[in-house]
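Protein modeling request. Please complete all fields; requests missing the sequence field cannot be processed.
Requester role: graduate student
Desired output: 3D structure, token encoding
Chains: 1
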Amino acid sequence: TQYTAADASRANLTLNARTMSAAVYCVDWSADGFSNLSALSDEDACFKKYTDERLAAAMTSFDVHAGAGDTQFLLTSAYLVFFMQAGFAMLCAGSVRSKNTKNILIKNVLDACVGAVAWFLFGYGFAFGTTDGTKPNSFIGSGNFAMKSIESAGDVAFFLFQWAFSAAAATIVSGSVAERTRFEAYLGYSFFLTAFVYPCVVHWGWSAEGWLGPWRTNGALLLDTGMLDFAGSGIVHMVGGCAGLMGAWIVGPRTGRFAPDGRVNPMPGHSAPLVVLGTFILWVGWYGFNPGSQLGFVAASSP
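Delivered output (303 residues):
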């Protein structure tokens, strides 16, 4: 059977190159359907041409949808991680005495607000920033401050996801120094940790230039392997834990915590329901914290 241009209708054309005669016509498929026809004498070549074009179109469509799926997955994970701030707030509020509830809650809010400004201005640039023509720095990032050159949807989703991580690291400290830290001092700590301390550690372990990570491209890996920290057990929680330990050591115990003879005076939290509620919120948040660290859900190129 020989097909002509008039026969090439989108509705009923069945292309089966194996049954065509030597004088077959091969459809050149475009975005608009059948755009032009070219005669091919080799039916195998015709079949290959058709399948290659269909496969290329399918792969292009897959890449587009996979990128959108990965972006949505990362954004959803970022929302869950940020929701952990509510869990930290409830856990801390229930663990302190009722007179200090407002104080601990406002400090948790500050971690998110001040941390967002610090991460936007300096944190992301120190953690993942690069500058064209600049020698890679193994200690600290050097570009993309204030979201410069962060333009694609995937890059914005990655920025938000990493900001939620930085806020989590900062909030860990609030419970360590609860009921005994001045407001302005905590404000300065929150900005400094999110703008400089935490981003430096992130750069060491999670950037392609850091001296500690397994993805380093500008030098030898530490012990030939580097340190693989998939979801921040070292980078996020170690930084928050060490900062909390140092904060508790500097400010000392709460007033009245110890009697003159050294006995420990009990200071129970005022609300067990808030503690349990905060625990479950943190539990839910971890379903964004750990799976989201894959940074992708669909694309074959995701790490």
